[in-house]
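Z., the sequence and structure:
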Amino acid sequence: MNNPIYTITSNRDEDVFIHAMPGHFISASTHLNYYVGTSDIKHNHDVSVEAAKLMANYYNERNIRIDTVLCLYETQALGAYLAHELQQTTMYDPYPQETVYVLGPEYDASGNMIFRDNLRKLINGKRVVLLISCITSGKTIQRAMSSVGYYGGEVAGVTAIFSAISSIDGVEINTIFTKEDVPGYQAYAPNECPLCKEGKKVDAIANGYGYSLF
């Protein structure tokens, strides 16, 4: 696969960026004409720290209290930096809460999100922000929201590096990049994919961890 790769920089911080690669990609529930790469924000310390500051501003400016950052798809490092920023004293919140927990989910054999008994206290009765790399259809976030509710938590926010949608189940998505930042970005239902109808081969299978060539 020799598809071109474009670097897209945040208009709020030139040190925060993603990559976009055109092609024909499939995920669990959608077909995409772009793969959006978020690895630098998740795995590069300097970029991750700057991205966390942008994400935290949303909650600090609105005085939204967060107790736990629930990290999906390898966002634990980013989640730790986000938690650090949420605990900092700001003009909006001179007395921030003492501790913001950072947690990654476990999944059972059926793909359901579960939390062991020793970790349920980090969800039960807590105000939880869901942190994810990319949102396309929002189905992963909907499942996570249901799991948080099942374990007695409250979803206080949804934060993404990139999101193709602006809200989900009435919750506004706090995102650094939107589909407007990736010109021509489209997500299709599998049975409505024009790339398939045109006979264009699939380049790769993609999910929140990355992509694998088809």
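The first helix runs from residue 39 to 43. The radius of gyration is 17 Å.

Let me know what you think.
H.
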